[in-house]
Every structure is written in structure tokens, then in C-alpha cells.
Amino acid sequence: MLVRRKMESDQSGHDYEHVRRVVRNAQYLLDKEKKADDFKVLLACYLHDFYDEKLVQDVTAEKANLRHILVQQFEISSDTINDIFQIIDQMSFAHNLAETHKLSLEGQIVQDADRLDAIGAIGVFRAIRYGVVHGIADYDSTLEPREELTQDNYREDTTIINHFYEKLFKLEKLMNTKAAKRIARSRTKLMQEFVSEYEAEYRGEK
Fold it and tell me: Ranges for the HD domain (predicted)?
């Protein structure tokens, strides 16, 4: 209920249904990675967007409040919370632009599970949804995709279509687990076909 109440009103593609899909992805990956701590993986999946800087105004306050809730209401140990927060703090695409963090096996699974929900048919829908909510243009033929993203330019204006080139197409090679790499391959192909078709129709070639 804690996560549902927090995320259910989101309109940008980071809602509770996204959380549920990430959890489901993680459960599949956990079945392939037997040595991982299931509890830490699933808890991190449920909480991974809870204090995301894209979604909250005060990350520090939200994080402190979450720690208090986990200790007082759920009696989760400080060590476990620290491990969960480390995963959440180091897993995002943006937080790995300047330096690639070495994640635990649990962190790798959570990262893969989240990234799998950013690609494929659902990824196409989420990219469009996020763009619409934030007023991002769908396409600009005069604006080339940035070849390299940095922490400084990551939040700068782009287009929905450029977002596929700048980030989403790259996620396949950034997956950690064999199972996630396999799934990402077909999902990336679907996105590439979508973008190719969109651009052809935009140019009047189809």
C-alpha cells in the first residue's frame, strides 16, 4: 500500500503499474540468478522510484522519511536499508554517466528489471507518455541526436525520437544478466523498427 499510494497518481510512466512490471521482471531474472537475495531485490524494485529526483522535490527529505517508515513500520534493519538505498542511488542511467558504478548482483538484477521496462513496446509507450506529460517535442529533423550524454546535458531539451537514439537503443548493451540481454535484443529491434517507420512516414516516404 505504501508504494501504491505514492506512485498511483503519476502520469509520466513511473506509476504503480511500472513498479509492478519491474517487480515481475526481477522475479523472472531471480529465477535465473539463484545466488541473489530475493528480499533485497524485490524491496529495491518496489522502492526504486520512491525518491527519484524526477518525481519528488526534495530527495533528501523523501529518503529520510522512507528510512523512518522502513525502520519503524516494517522493522527492516539499517544494514538492509543501506544496501537497498545503495542499489537505488547507483542504478539509474543518469547516475552512471560520469562513472559506471559496480553494482552487487542484487543491484544488477534491479537495474536490468527497470531497464527492461524502458524498452520494447511498453518502452515506446512510456517514452511517448513521458514526452507528452513534460511537453517534449515528438520529432525535429533539424535536431540531431546527441552522440554522448553527460550529467550536464542529460536533462537538456531533446525530442522523443532522439531519446531512443540517445538512451533507449543503448540499453541492450548495458544489461548485466544473460537473461536480460536476451530479452533486450528483441525489444530493441522492435523499437528500432518503430522509429524507422516513424521517420519514413514523417518524411513522406511511406
Answer: 15-119
| Polymer length of the chain | 206
- The answer to whether 66 touches 51, Cβ cutoff 8 Å, is yes
Compute mean pLDDT per 10 residues along the chain, 206 residues long, and list them. 80 87 98 95 96 89 96 97 98 91 97 98 96 94 89 84 97 98 99 98 89
Architecture label for domain 1-203 = Orthogonal Bundle (1.10)
**Number of Cβ atoms within 10 Å of the Cβ of 117:** 22
Closest CA to 182 of 18, 19, 28: 28
Can you list the alpha helix ranges (DSSP code H) found in the chain?
2-7, 16-32, 38-47, 59-72, 78-91, 105-116, 120-133, 160-166, 171-174, 178-202
| Distance between CA atoms of residues 4 and 103, nearest Å | 27
pLDDT at 53: 86
C-beta of residue 168 within 8 angstroms of C-beta of residue 13? no
State phi, psi for 123 to the nearest 5 degrees: -60, -40
How many angstroms separate the CA atoms of 99 and 90, rounded?
10
Q: Give the C-alpha separation, 82 to 156, whole Å.
A: 31
Q: Where along the chain do its domains lie?
A: 1-203
The model's pTM is 0.93
Q: Write down the pLDDT at residue 182.
A: 98
Predicted pLDDT at 5: 83
